[in-house]
Amino acid sequence: MELLLALASGVLYAAGVYLMMRRRLVQLIIGLGLLSNGTNLLIFTAGGLTRARPPVLPEGAVALASPYADPVPQALVLTAIVIGFGLLAFSLVLAHRVHDTVGKDDVDVVGRDR
Amino acid sequence: MSTLVLPILVPLATAAVLMLAAKRPGPQRWIAMTGTVLQLASAIAIFVRVNGSGVQVLQISAWPAPFGITLVADLLAAILVVAVGVVGTAIAAVAFSGVDPRREAFGYHPLVQILLMGVAGAFLTGDFFNLYVWFEVMLVASFVLMALNRTRAQMEAAFKYVTINLIASSIFLTALGLLYGTTGTLNMAELARVWPTVATPGVHTVLAVLFLVAFSVKAGLFPLFFWLPASYHTPPAAIGAVFAGLLTKVGVYALIRVFTLLFHSGSPAVVALLLAMSSATMVIGLVAALTERDFRRVLAFNLVGHIGYTTASLSLLTPAALAGAIFYVLHHIVVITNLYLVSGVMLRLRRTTEVSGLGGLYRDQPLFAVLAMIPIFSLAGVPPLSGFLGKLAIVEGTFAAGAHWVGGLVLVVGLLTLLSMARVWSDSFWVPAGEAQDLASPGAPLLAAIAALSLVTVAMTVAAEPLFELASRGAHQLLQRDEYVRAVLGRPR
What we know:
The structure holds two protein chains of two kinds. Chain A is an all-alpha fold. In chain A, 68% of the residues lie in helices and 0% in strands. Chain A is built from four helices and no strands. Chain A is elongated, with a radius of gyration of 20 Å. By secondary structure, chain B is an all-alpha fold. Chain B has one domain. In chain B, 77% of the residues lie in helices and 2% in strands. In chain B, strands 1-2 form a two-stranded antiparallel ribbon. In chain B, helix 2 (25-53) packs antiparallel against helix 3 (75-94), helix 3 packs antiparallel against helix 5 (108-124) and helix 16 runs parallel beside helix 19. The two termini of chain B are 22 Å apart. The mean pLDDT of chain B is 86. Classes of the chains: A mainly alpha, B mainly alpha. Chains A and B meet through helix 2 and helix 3 of A and helix 6 and helix 7 of B.
């Protein structure tokens, strides 16, 4: 399972970086989105995977019995998803306005200095 | 100590109140001013406590570290939060002499408050994931401030700025994921405790490089600084001043934090890489500054070059060099903010900061010229101003650490800075004006803010001895780590 998720995360990183190297604004933004999702998957996987052992105290117990799913990476990923979603929405609006102002969605044209 | 949360809560509350007064610029300016003054006051209160009785800690909702979110103020963080208050107050004062109406109508004041909240939060947090969140708060506010206008140049600058910062954030987050996977914690003090026992050389190098790249983008180190001069000259001067004064310093602060807490030993190659990047940043920044003919672009490259000073001293990881870096960061925050405000006056007087449109300012605006002289020559490093003392401290630190070539490089780059600032002074203030005519008066509040920041620079010069002593104690605290770790975790190592 770790291997599968690690591969998936790697593919998302690679696809994200590839798209960011393209010239169109939209592809750049999709690339950023893929990159942030690859990161989320990486946090989740690096935190350790434990299936079907929720970190819930059984009735009467004082401590969790050892293998249990670590809730912290899940909390981190949840926060990162929310932030990534906000940033993605912002960059889409920004790209729309850049397109309105510049009239093209070619990064080379937008990026031309002065 | 619950005061620790005030530099974060006060701007948040101010932003909320400002939203209620939306589209009424008059009251908004007063509310913003009140908010920043209160933030400065709370920062000073924290500083007094930290200075008197050591590292202050607040465990949010009383969750003990390392399980909850911890706010920590050591000397470095406390001084930097005071600097945030000073810059914030100056920027709030500048708003009284007018803000671009479109920006003011679309939330300029609340966004500046959110930005200040993000910066203060980044300085005060004791948890790396929390640091990431504050980075994002700060970045989103800065994105919107930059993109609020629809001119082509500003949209282009904003797009570059947003893209590169989002990539850096992704790298930062990747590093956090791997760090948590290795250590099982993201609390800075707990990490400092467990890191030596769990880090293998491979993990150490990978994480150090990931953090170095992520924070170098934010700080503007070579070869990752190109977005900065491409974007910082486009927004209005007040926004440029906050960005230049505070945002890159957050990157420098984060570099100081990770390199003193985690990567101080164990991967000399990465520390050497930091030194090499910093040296290249100094030289390339200042050489580029000399080729520019627009005052704000000259400033942007000077900003980049001088970041190199602080990170080069950091990479030596000796108390003297680190103290020099802290002193220089403080000097630089005040001076570069002030210089961007000076460029704002030029924009008001001549509608341009291109050298061709300037000139004759010394004759036409003697008061402004005298006020501008202090930051210009302080940045240039003319004795006895704070820039000279900061450079002296850095050079002494590098020599004491045996890195003579770094000290030599600092001196050469100091000469280039002098050249670049002397040219600015002569081109914009001394040469005859040509056809350029002054359009309007620069506005008393703007001049008052410049005067106040110049006074702070003079005060830092006069009180250099105690300030440097403070920086030395801050550096010791960073390199010893024990006091920080003990204050947060509440038990001996």
